[in-house]
Structure formats: structure tokens, C-alpha cells
TrEMBL record:
Coiled coil: none annotated. The chain crosses the membrane at residues 115-135, 147-167, 202-221. It holds the Pfam family Zn_peptidase_2. The keyword Transmembrane helix applies. This is Peptidase membrane zinc metallopeptidase putative. Keywords: Membrane, Transmembrane, Transmembrane helix.
């Protein structure tokens, strides 16, 4: 079995495990109500109000775990379940997204760097998605050029994932702290439930970084070794 197949299977296993763990913990703690009985939307509104943020719209959207904060439009999007639920998972996710709004308000450097890189990573995603098919069916570019473009594309994605790590982990740390300070998590058991959900979600970003690094090396190493490592 080649090194690259092992690399692919290894990163795939890491990604699948990370996704399984976050979904498993989310399902578990979405069944556990917080003692405050505040919904995700109510928690988000209270956190933003406490921080003096009045220009961020909180909206509900269909789709599980599609929650996000959009700094360009200042919209905090929660899945319908997290918007309406008072579970530990819901308030943890809501507080995490508020963490991004707090980062935006305070000019958190890694967040602004990630925002600036969105255009480049979207272009890189197009390269790594379509270039293999273009080469397979037309061969209008040389192998060396194709490898270079793929290595650069995955390198951009890897750097984006690297910048994403401090953004996500900082937002989770802010969420854990503010939930405790505002009394939305009471006692170690509730705090531990939120922590498990957010920490598991954080490891999906670690898995994405590992995968993108592996793919970059897959295309970069043959260029550095004159193609010998692909044999």
C-alpha cells in the first residue's frame, strides 16, 4: 500500500471520527436542558446586549449544525433547533457564535485575517476540485504544472485552516466563560456538558487542518523529490 493511500485513509479516518464525535456529543447534550431554561436565541441576545452589541441580527435557519456568525452582514445564524431549544448543546453553540461577534467587535486579529482570506480560499477550492478532472480529460497542462497548482491550492486551504484554529478555540473559550459568568451554566455538570460539545466541535477544525496539510504534501513532495515519492 502506497504512502499516499495510507495518508488519505488516515486523514479520512481522523475527519470521520471528529465528525462522529461532535454529532454524538451534540445529540447527547441536546437532550439535556440547562437549569436556566433560556433558549439559544435568548442566550445569544443576552450575551450581545451585555457586550453592548446592538447591530447584530439573530436569525433562525433550517439545517443541523449550520450555525455561524457572518461578520460581513452582522448576522448570527442559529439552526432552528438551537434557536428554540434550552439544551446545553443549544446554549453552548449560541454562545460560541456570540464569541465570534465579540471577536469582531474587539478587532480580534485572526478573525480579520480569516475574513481577508475568504476570497483566496474560495479560489483555491475551485482549483483543487476541478483541476484533476481538467487534467484527466484534456491534459492541456503538464504534470509539473498540475502538481504545482494543486500544491499551492491545498497550501492556501491549509493556511486558512491554520488561521481558523485560534478563531474557533478562542470563541469557544469566550463562550464557556460568559455562560458561567452570566449564570447560564450552573455547576460543574452543566459546564462540562457545554465544554464537551464545544471541544469536540473544535477538533473538527484540527481534522480539517491535518487533511489539508496531508493533501498539500501529497502534491508538493513529488515536486521536491523529482517524482520519486509518487512511485
Amino acid at each position: 500500500m502506497s504512502l499516499y493511500l495510507l495518508l488519505f485513509l488516515g486523514t479520512l479516518a481522523i475527519s470521520l471520527f471528529a465528525q462522529f464525535r461532535v454529532k454524538s456529543l451534540y445529540r447527547r447534550y441536546s437532550q439535556v436542558s440547562s437549569s436556566s431554561h433560556a433558549t439559544g436565541a435568548e442566550v445569544a441576545q443576552a450575551i450581545l446586549q451585555r457586550a453592548g452589541i446592538g447591530d447584530v441580527e439573530i436569525v433562525a435557519a433550517e439545517g443541523l449544525l449550520g450555525d455561524h456568525y457572518d461578520p460581513s452582514s452582522k448576522r448570527l445564524v442559529l439552526s432552528t433547533e438551537n434557536y428554540q431549544s434550552d439544551s446545553l448543546a443549544a446554549i453552548g453553540v449560541a454562545a460560541h457564535e456570540c464569541g465570534h461577534a465579540l471577536q469582531h467587535q474587539q478587532g480580534y486579529g485572526p478573525l480579520h485575517l480569516r475574513m481577508a482570506a475568504v476570497g483566496a480560499v474560495q479560489f483555491a477550492n475551485q482549483i483543487v476540485m476541478f483541476l484533476p478532472f481538467l487534467f484527466m480529460f484534456t491534459r492541456i497542462i503538464s504534470v509539473h504544472t498540475g502538481l504545482t497548482l494543486m500544491a499551492v491550492g491545498w497550501g492556501v486551504i491549509m493556511l486558512f485552516n491554520l488561521v481558523t484554529l485560534p478563531v474557533e478555540f478562542d470563541a469557544s473559550n469566550r463562550a464557556k466563560q460568559v455562560l458561567a459568568e452570566m449564570g447560564y451554566t450552573r455547576g460543574e455538570e452543566e459546564a462540562a456538558g457545554v465544554r464537551k460539545v464545544l471541544d469536540a466541535a473544535g477538533w473538527t477544525y484540527v481534522a480539517a487542518l491535518i487533511s489539508s496539510l496531508a493533501y498539500m504534501l501529497y502534491y508538493l513532495l513529488p515536486l521536491l523529490t523529482g517524482g520519486r515519492s509518487r512511485d
